[in-house]
Amino acid sequence: MWVIRCTDEQCGQVTYAAQIDELIGQHRDDAGWFLCGLCGKHGYIEKSFALQEGEGQTWAPFLKGAIKLEYPDDTYRPFAFLVGRTADDGEVDSVWVSYYKDLRESGGKLKMGYGPGGPPVLELEQVATLVRTLVGTGLMEQSMLEPQ
Questions:
Q1: Inter-CA distances, 76 with 60, 82, 131, Å
Q2: DSSP string, 67-93
Q3: What is the pLDDT of residues 88-104, one digit of tens each?
Q4: pLDDT in tens, 8-44
Q5: Nearest one of 38, 30, 54 to 6, comparing CA atoms
Q6: CA dist., res. 102 & res. 140, Å (int)
Q7: How confident is the prediction for the chain on average, in pLDDT?
Q8: Is residue 6 within 8 Å of 38, Cβ to Cβ?
Q9: CA distance 98 to 114
C-alpha cells in the first residue's frame, strides 16, 4: 500500500495506491509529481528503512514523484523516485532508481524489485531520458551537466 500525503496544510488528505503500477500510472502529473487525489496538489510518500551501519539508524526519504523509464522488455519496468529530505513541497535532492516486475498476465505476481538481482540496468537512452526530464522540469540545472 502506498500512502500519498497532501502537502497543502488546508487539505491534509491522504490518497492510497494499492500497487506500484497504480501509483506510477494513476497518481502523478505530467512532470512526475505525486498528486493528492482530493485537491490535486503535490503529495509525498514517507518511507523509513533501517540501516546496517548501526542500531537505530534509519534512512527516511520523502518520495515526491516518479519518472517512468520506458523499456523494450515489458516485464521489467524501471523508474526513478524523486526524493527529498523534507515532506514539504520543496526541494528534490536525490533520485532513487528502482523497477517493478509484472508477471500477472502469465500467472505470476507484481513485485517491486531491489534484488536479489540488484538494481535495474539502464540503457544509455534511459539515462538520457532521466536527465532530460530532470532538467526539463527544473529539478536539475543545466549547469550541473558542464564538465568540472
A1: 26, 19, 20
A2: EE---SSSSEEEEEEEEESSSSS----
A3: 877 899 999 998 888 88
A4: 999 989 999 999 999 999 999 999 999 999 999 999 9
A5: 38
A6: 31
A7: 89
A8: yes
A9: 7
Q: Tell me how many helices (H) and strands (E) the chain has.
A: 2, 9
Whether the model pTM is above 0.85: yes
Amino acid at 68: K
Please report how many Cα atoms fall inside a 13 Å half-sphere around the Cα of residue 29, on the Cβ side.
Answer: 14
Amino acid identity, position 10: Q
Query: Which residue is listed with cell 531491489?
Result: 114
Q: Cα–Cα–Cα angle for 100, 32, 99, nearest 5°? A: 15
Place of cell 496538489: 41
Residue 138 CA, distance from chain mean position: 17
Read off the C-alpha cell for 51.
540501516
Q: Which residue has the cell 536539475?
A: 140
Average pLDDT over residues 50-61: 88
